[in-house]
DNA sequence: ATTCATAACCTGACTAGTCTAGTCGTGAAA
DNA sequence: TTTCACGACTAGACTAGTCAGGTTATGAAT
């Protein structure tokens, strides 16, 4: 693991374990330089990343103060796996795999008019705290992944791609709208006609810019929350 | 202006002017080092920021390729002013200032239970392409800004804070939910009873971590779109 | 024609330093 | 007691390198 990654994850763990609490200061760059025996740029990279992720704020002349994140769990923006997200938010979650089907062309409203892609379609229903909350349609690029095992879908596709297959996921573009629920929404989530759905359509890319998957994620609007952390300049 | 900022904004301008098109490569780090007579770390910082913002992707061994952003205008996440956003998306937009009122305590559902703050409340209605689309409730921290002029509200609060007052806006936390429209929504936006609203509640902070403002932004759900760009690791 | 080594690029990570500017506590002078 | 200068400490920007590892074109050997 890279040195700055190690420092980043050590500090992140300490933050999650409340070793440093909101209002506290992290060790200064200089102290971390001594502790980790690295150059200051390496320390800066690690702490700067924590700042970009909304954990701390760097105050020139003072230090890196820990921010209060009590309000912001459950981001849509962060590329974390669903399981990570739920675990952090102390929620109870599980998955139903509805169907896994090969050779499915990706719908045009997901690709945005780009060249057609053959995919493995994975449809899942997500439960949170005993309620049916979300339907996910994952169209996994068959040019990248030839087969999606049922166990991977049952646990976490993301985790499977990254940790089992060693793929480097790099970024995702997500478009969010609010739409009326369709028949499948009503059947799978047991909601009334007229219930609105928050629909998030995204494409996920690898670090070599190949498309890994397209996803349509349909949430009960009445239960939907998302939290964003946005920094002005990175 | 800092050197890396200059390089960043030059490249950004070139990207917006289509000097570099999707699929093209930016000048390599080495070329930019020569062009700007700076060290490579300075160039890297500039181009890395473009990558974090979703403009380009850095491909080791190849270069920095320009990404296709045709699908993602109109982000909620980016801390850009509303006017910038609309200008980029080629939309027609204007503002109604409904009311400006001093000494208003910020509602608790915005502060999230934090200590009460006295504010100047600015209520505005935003029009896009001739339609009434959004109501904004801005609670501007009176401890930071004692008076909000009507012209600032009519144009852009953000712009006023940054460019007129020289305040350094650093980050915002935004929570998004979908709710039924209330009476004021119906009156101001002329929508039917039962219309859903996308409600974005946010707090904006300065670089010294003082709270600048709390905002509640209420959008017609049927017209709402947001686009996110999320990178895995910065 | 195909294969393969190589050289010329590219970005990523890291180092060890300089210089600037802001914060804060201490202690001396008013 | 208040003020003010200073030193110690903080982060930001920047430099001029090194080394590693991936990509690509070229050109020689098969």
Can you tell me about this structure?
The structure is a homodimer of 234-residue chains. Chain A folds into two domains: 64 residues, Orthogonal Bundle (Arc Repressor Mutant, subunit A); 142 residues, Chorismate lyase (3-Layer(aba) Sandwich), CATH 3.40.1410. Chain A starts with a helix and ends with a strand. In chain A, strand 7 and strand 8 form a beta hairpin. Helices cover 28% and strands 35% of the residues of chain A. In chain A, helix 1 packs across helix 3 and helix 2 crosses helix 3. The radius of gyration of chain A is 20 Å and the shape is globular. The mean pLDDT of chain A is 88. A six-stranded antiparallel β-sheet of chain A has the order 3-4-5-8-7-6. By secondary structure, chain A is α+β, with helices and mostly antiparallel strands. Chain A has eight helices and nine strands. At the A-B interface, helix 3, strand 6, strand 7 and strand 9 of A face helix 3, strand 6, strand 7 and strand 9 of B. Strand 9 of chain A pairs antiparallel with strand 6 of chain B. The first copy, chain A, binds a DNA duplex (30 and 30 nucleotides) through helix 3.
């Amino acid at each position: 693991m890279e040195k700055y990654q190690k420092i980043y994850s050590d500090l992140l763990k300490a933050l999650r374990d409340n070793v440093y609490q909101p209002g506290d200061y992290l060790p200064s760059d200089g102290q971390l330089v001594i502790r980790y025996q690295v150059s200051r740029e390496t320390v800066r990279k690690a702490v700067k990343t924590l700042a970009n992720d909304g954990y701390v704020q760097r105050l020139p002349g003072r230090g890196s103060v820990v921010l209060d994140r009590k309000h912001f769990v459950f981001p849509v923006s962060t590329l974390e796996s669903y399981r990570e997200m739920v675990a952090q938010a102390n929620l109870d979650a599980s998955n139903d795999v509805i169907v896994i089907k090969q050779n499915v062309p990706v719908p045009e409203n997901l690709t945005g008019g780009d060249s057609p892609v053959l995919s493995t379609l994975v449809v899942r229903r997500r439960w949170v705290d005993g309620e049916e909350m979300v339907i996910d349609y994952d169209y996994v690029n068959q040019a990248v992944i030839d087969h999606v095992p049922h166990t991977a879908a049952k646990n976490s596709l993301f985790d499977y791609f990254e940790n089992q297959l060693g793929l480097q996921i790099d970024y995702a573009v997500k478009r969010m709208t609010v739409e009326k629920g369709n028949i499948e929404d009503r059947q799978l989530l047991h909601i009334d006609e007229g219930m609105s759905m928050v629909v998030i359509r995204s494409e996920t890319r690898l670090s070599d810019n190949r498309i890994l998957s397209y996803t349509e994620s349909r949430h009960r609007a009445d239960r939907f929350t998302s939290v964003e952390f946005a920094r002005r300049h990175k």
